[in-house]
Each structure stands twice: as structure tokens, then as C-alpha cells.
Specification:
The protein is of the alpha/beta class. The protein folds into two domains: 5-171 and 254-258, Rossmann fold; 184-239, 2-Layer Sandwich (Alpha-Beta Plaits), CATH 3.30.70.20. It has helices spanning 15-27, 42-45, 71-76, 101-111, 139-157, 194-198, 221-225, 237-248; strands spanning 5-9, 34-38, 50-51, 57-63, 80-81, 86-93, 119-123, 184-185, 231-232, 256-258. The strands form three sheets. The chain has a six-stranded mixed beta sheet, sandwiched between helices. A two-stranded parallel sheet has the order 3-5. The two termini are 19 Å apart. It binds flavin mononucleotide and iron/sulfur cluster (2 copies). Residues 12, 183, 199-201, 203-204, 212, 216-222 line the site of one iron/sulfur cluster. Residues 180-209, 213-236 form the 4Fe-4S ferredoxin-type domain. Keywords: Iron, Iron-sulfur, Metal-binding. InterPro entries: 4Fe4S_Fe-S-bd, 4Fe4S_Fe_S_CS, Flavodoxin/NO_synth, Flavoprotein-like_sf. Residues 5-153 form the Flavodoxin-like domain.
Amino acid sequence: MTGKLAVIYFSPTHTSRTTALAVAEGLAELGMEAQDVDLTMAPAREGFALELGEGDVAVVGYPVYAGRVPRVLAEALAGLAGEGAVAVPVAVYGNRDFDDALVEMADILAEAGFAVPAAGAFVGEHSFTRLVGTDRPDAADVEAAVAFGAAVAAKLAAGDLSAAEPRGNRPYTDYQADLPFMPVTTDACTDCGVCAHVCPMGAIDPADVRRVDECCISCCACVKACPEAAKTFEGTPVDGVAHMLQENCVARREPETFL
Ligand SMILES: Cc1cc2nc3c(=O)[nH]c(=O)nc-3n(C[C@H](O)[C@H](O)[C@H](O)COP(=O)(O)O)c2cc1C
Ligand code: SF4
Ligand code: SF4
């Protein structure tokens, strides 16, 4: 194929980015040049517009939030137009389940004019705790994502654009992730400013990092990036969910692909 390969992703803690890029690597067999479209940070999402057409392919990588597509990403994707291009949803979830996040993204992309002949769900370390899905995607996950990309390339090369039928329900599960629960800042904070810099919502005041706006989506980018472990959800309901996950969701889950 001679068109564009757009690797579009929203990835506060980087696992969706890693996975989407691995899928794109597998698709490289099509001989297309990959273009990064990082929608993680607010300025990139605001006013986002991208028009693709026949012969183009979009890989769309995103974390599963409460069994759904993160709302901020769904909103940004209103600026994406397919016009007969192909799109491949790549959902990354924290080893609990992806529920309806693949069917929801397949619907969003079909509505935008894309053919959706493949979709995949992969595992990433859980945003809320390093003890669930620890260090994933690991080498085996990356290998599976590259292999999935290659299988999609083979399907496209055969001219087969038949729609994938990913696991999931319609109507989708109710969206429960609009908490909002904001992280707290402990006395270990050195005011380095890293957390404000990485926040996808611009929710942390760079002049006073203890001030976190209610637009926080609990993505945990700040928590995982803080070099002093001074940003934390300890004592908030997010911490309660993390403990529930540590009790119930540590058994390793494997990638699921639909072609
Ligand atoms: C608000 C929120 C809700 C989440 N809901 C789910 C979920 O329903 N199922 C699941 O397995 N993981 C869930 N996760 C975990 C993320 O999907 C997972 O850690 C993913 O790898 C994060 O992607 P990223 O590194 O690209 O940010 C949730 C994370 C957040 C922040
Ligand atoms: S990253 Fe951590 S140490 Fe640095 S300003 Fe934020 S909370 Fe403080
Ligand atoms: S303040 Fe909220 S939205 Fe911003 S990085 Fe931290 S958890 Fe994510």
C-alpha cells in the first residue's frame, strides 16, 4: 500500500503508546511510512483534525478506562475523518478486562468513515498500581503486538476489509470514570515540576503543584512520573480500587485479537 500509516494514541503512562507502535512495526510490511500522532496532552487534543482516505491506515492506541474508551480521547476523535481508510483499534487494559472498549472504538471509527477489519486488546501495567500487570507490556506482549500488526498487513494485502467482530457489548457498560479523584502531594515533594509537565489535562498548577484541578482524570501519569513518590492517590477511593485489583486481578491475562 502507498498511503499514510498514522499511529494515533492517547497514553498517559506510555503502555498504549508502546503497544500501538509495536502493532505499527508489524504493519510496516505494507511498506508505508509511519507517522506519530500523539493525542496524550491537552494542546494536541484541542482542535485536533486529521483526514485520511483510501489507501491510508490508522492504528489507534488507548487505555481502557472503566471498560470504555477514555472520554477525552473519544471527544478528540471527533476531529478524525476516515473517508474509506482502514483503522485498527488497539486497546490496552490493566489486566482486569477491556469490557466494551474495543466495540466502542470500532463504532467510533466506523462512524468516522473507516473500515475496521481488525482490533486487538493488550495488557499494560495498571495505572492505579504497579502490582497488577507489573512491567507490561513485556517482551512477549510486544512480540504479540508485532505479530498482530503483521497479520493485519496480510489481511489488507489480500484485499480483505471485512469488519472485525471484537468481544464486547452494545449498549456499552455505563461510564463510571468521571470520579473526579485528585492525587494528593506529600511532604516529600521537592517542587521539581515534573508532575505538572506530564499531566495530560493540565490539571496541576506549575506554580503550586499541590493544587490539582477537578478536570483530573485519575490517569496516574503524575504518580508514576514523580521521582520522589510524592504524588499519590493513597487515602482516596482510587487507592481502594487498587487494593481490590491487587486481590482479584493478578493472574496473567493474554492479548486477544480479532481479525
Ligand atoms: C480511570 C482509569 C480506569 C481504568 N479502568 C480499567 C478497566 O476498566 N480495566 C482494566 O483492566 N484496566 C483499567 N485501567 C488501567 C489502564 O487501562 C491500563 O493501566 C493501561 O495500560 C494504561 O494505559 P497508558 O499507559 O497508555 O496510560 C484504568 C485506568 C484508569 C486511569
Ligand atoms: S513530580 Fe513529585 S516531587 Fe516533583 S513537583 Fe510533582 S509531586 Fe513534587
Ligand atoms: S493530576 Fe490527574 S490528570 Fe493530571 S496526571 Fe495526575 S492523575 Fe493524571
